[in-house]
Amino acid sequence: MDVKIKKLPKSLIEITGEIPAEKFESARERAIKELSSHVSIDGFRKGMAPESVLERKLGAMAILEEMAQISLGEAYPEIVLKNKLDVIGNPEISITKIAAENPLGFKIISAIVPGIELPDYKTIAKEAAKKKEPAEVSDKEIDDLLLELRKSRSIKDEKSGEQIIPELSDEFARTLGGFENVSALKDKVRENMKMEKEYRAKEKVRLLMADGIALKTEAEIPEIISLSETGKMISRIKDDVEKMGMKFEDYLKNIKKTEDEMVKEWLPEGEKRAKIELALMKIAEKEKIKPTEEEIEKEIKHVLEHYKEAKEERVREYVASLLIKEKVFEFLENQ
Fold this sequence. Notes:
The chain is α+β, with helices and mostly antiparallel strands. Helix content is 60%, strand content 11%. The strands form 2 sheets. It has a 4-stranded antiparallel beta sheet. The protein is extended, with a radius of gyration of 29 Å. The relative contact order is 0.09.
C-alpha cells in the first residue's frame, strides 16, 4: 500500500493513499456478515441473508461503505506502525474514491504527539510547594462541626414543639459509633478534619504546579486533543446535571447557551489540560518515572471489581496513565 504523509500545522499530519482493489474486495464477505447481523429481512435469520438480498434492501453503496470501514480499520494501524508515527487521539478518516473492484482512496488527518519544550519544572514545583497551607484544625472548628452533628440528631418535643438538641456527652458520643467518651469523639473528628485539610492543601499545590508548568511549556497542542479534553469536562457537567434530576437541555436553556457555545468557551481550558497531560508524560519520560507491573495489576484488579464490563486492555491503559501522573506529582512534591 502506497501512502503519502504530509505534515500540517498544529502537530497534525495528513495521510493519503489507496488500498489495493484486491485487499478492498477481501473485506466484502465480512461487510455483508456485519450488515446482515443488524438488519431484519423477511424470510432470513439475522446474519444469514445473501448479498443479493442485502443489496436490494440497503443498496450497493452501503456494502461498499462497510467494506471501507473494515479495510481502513485494518490499514490505519499498519500505516502507523510501518511509518513509526506517534499518533494520539482518534483520526479523521474520509474516503476520496470508492467503487467495486477498484482501489479505495482515502485521506486521514491525525494528531501526533507534539514536540514539547519543558520549563524548569523542578523550580516551579518548589515555588508551588512553598504556598502549601498548614492543615491545622482549631477547637472552634471541631465544636462547630459537633454542633451541626448534634442538631442533625435533634428531637421534636411533643409539648413545646421545639427541637431539642442533645447535649455533647459521653452517652451521645457512644451513639455515634461506639466512641468511649467525648474526648475520643473529638480526637476522631480532629483526625478526619486534618486529613481532609491535608488532602485539599495537597490538591491545591498540585494544581499550582500543573498550571505553572503548563504556562511555561512550549508546545503546539492539536485542536483534536483540546476538543477531547473539553468534551470530558462537558461530559462531567452532564453527569452532574442528571444526578440533580435535570435534563442537560434544560440546563443549557437556564444558562442561555448552546453546547457548541460551551465547547468554544471552554476550549482554552481544554488546551491547557491537554498541555498539562502531555507535560506530565514528558517529565515521566525524562525522569524515567513509571509504575511497576505489580502496581498496575493491583489497580487493574481493583477497577475491574467495580466495572466488570470494562475491557481489560482499556483499563490497563487508563490505570498506567493514572499511576504515572501520580508518581510524577510525588516526584515534583519531593523537590
